[in-house]
Amino acid sequence: MEEKGIKSHFTGHLSTMAITDILSAKDIESALSSCQADDSFNYKSFFSMVGLSSKSTDQIRKVFAILDRDKSGFIEEDELQMFLKNFSSDARALTSVETKAFLAAGDTDGDGKIGVEEFQSLVKA
For the EF-hand domain, which residue ranges apply (predicted)? Predict the structure, then answer.
């Protein structure tokens, strides 16, 4: 019984994990400042600047869980549009052009959303 309590506590902790538990606040600030202008977002340079590209598979999965706001197991287009806001509430929404390009880059199976494996591939691309 004790072990079950520990497990559910741990699982609960993961769902409330902050992005700054995995990525440095300073790196996040730098990455966000690089894409303040509309249509300046580039996922490859953002992932690199924020330090996500060098993280472990497990850490990337944890970031995916934060980005998957509705906990559907996928990052859908509306969640992608709000991507930067996961890093700072003051960040801008992605433009329609940026969102569609980001989705097209990550959605390798053509289902209109990005799964965890697709996200990992996108981060490591």
Answer: 55-90
Is 74 marked within a binding site?
yes
Residue 107 assigned to a binding site: yes
Letter string b/e over residues 92-123, b meaning 16 or more CB atoms within 10 A of that residue's CB: bebeeebbebbbeebbeeeeebbbbebbbebb
Token pair 């303040």 is found at 36
Let me know: does 75 contact 119? Beta carbons within 8 Å.
Answer: yes
Q: What is the pTM of this model?
A: 0.84
pLDDT in tens, 11-66: 444 446 799 999 999 999 999 999 999 999 999 999 999 999 999 999 999 999 99
Please, what is the Cα angle at 125 between 104 and 83, to 5 degrees?
55
Q: Residue 111 annotated as binding?
A: yes
Express each pLDDT in 84-113 by its tens digit.
999 999 999 999 999 999 999 999 999 999
Please, are residues 65 and 14 in contact by the beta-carbon 8 Å criterion?
yes
Rounded-to-5 percentages of helix, strand, coil across the chain:
60, 5, 35
